[in-house]
Amino acid sequence: MRHLRAGAYGVCAVFVLVLVGLACWPRTWLTVRDADGLRYAFVVAQDNRFSLTWMHSVEKENWVETFRIVNQSIVLVSTRFKTFGAGVPDQAGQTTRLANGWVVMEAIDRVVDPLAVQAAAAEHYRMRYGDRWFALSRAHDAPILTFAVRRATVIGMWDGIVGAWRATKTGRP
Q1: Cα 37 to the chain's mean position, in Å?
Q2: Which residues have CB under 8 Å from 123's CB, separation 6+?
Q3: Which alpha helices (H) appear in 25-157, and where do they start and end?
Q4: What single string gives the DSSP state of each residue in 112-149?
Q5: Is the peptide bond before 89 cis (omega within 30 degrees of 0)?
Q6: Quick one: which of 70, 71, 76, 94 is 20 to 30 A from 114 by CA?
Q7: C-alpha to C-alpha distance for 113 and 35, rounded to whole angstroms
Q8: What is the pTM assigned to this prediction?
């Protein structure tokens, strides 16, 4: 009986040590901060792309920009939108094409790290990471959000992990 108890304690001790090790092991994170602090934290995995989408304030059409994380930096890889307006380039990146009513500019590959966005409520800013969409805008507010890549432990990113886990789902653009 004593051997069973000692074995169980040993297994529990190893399990606790593994959990502590994982919590203290630094990983690469995509962080989203606002004036209140860390809003979201996402561990950077093999699929290291994310998208931001918003409704253009004048044209009332959705815009979508896709980014990827390369060498610890955020890189703009593509953008798509429905109409051209003042200040919009006629081409960017290596290819510009029309696809299903969208102007698509790909292979832009421009480093934008850190990335700052003012997520005005009227523009309905959203973010896609993995297969999930997150609301970035808040009613009657226009927070400035800073997206950055950071190396940290689970413990250091805990508020952002919980923020992403608790975030209400938002629809696709």
Answers
A1: 15
A2: 54, 55, 56, 57, 137
A3: none
A4: --SEEEE--GGGT-EEEETTEEEE---TT--PEEEEEE
A5: no
A6: 94
A7: 18
A8: 0.81
